[in-house]
Amino acid sequence: MSKTCIIYSFNSNKTRLVAEIIADAFGKGKIEKVNAETITEEQFLSFDNMILGVPTWFDGELPNYWSEFVPALEDLDLQGKTFAIFGLGDQEGYPENFVDGIGILAKLLEERGGRIVGETSTEGYTFESSAAVRDGKFLGLALDQENQARLTNDRVKKWVESLHNFIK
Hints:
Elements: E1 4-8, H1 13-26, E2 32-35, H2 41-45, E3 49-53, H3 64-74, E4 82-88, H4 100-111, E5 115-117, E6 120-121, E7 133-134, E8 137-138, E9 141-143, H5 152-163
Parallel strand pairs: 1-2, 1-3, 3-4, 4-5, 4-9
Antiparallel strand pairs: 6-8, 7-8
Helix pairs in contact: 1-5
């Protein structure tokens, strides 16, 4: 059986809330929760499947804890690893880089051999551009807790159901 985790900042309130909803949707004890602020390369590589929580900060930037881990990621071989990414953004306040963090991490992981799963539709969102969009779809689950929080639970439920095809 493959080893699965969900990596997110335990100190980021909105991302933590969504991560807990995702973990609960998989079922108690099915995936390990890991703090993105303290993860090591060895710990990262110990998992086969990873669900990554990445809010987009400011004008399309990764949060500090992910930015600080990027140099370590650049040296890793991620062949055989599967990644699903969820990200939080504000499509009204930052419409020109909505959930860019998803796209930034996805590109980095793919360049190192990682497989990205869990694409979602851009339907129902209003934004100008996003590094997270490829071929008309988000490269993960895009969430807007500022403007569409009421849609989060349904979006998470559908996304987790789709991930069961890839994460066992």
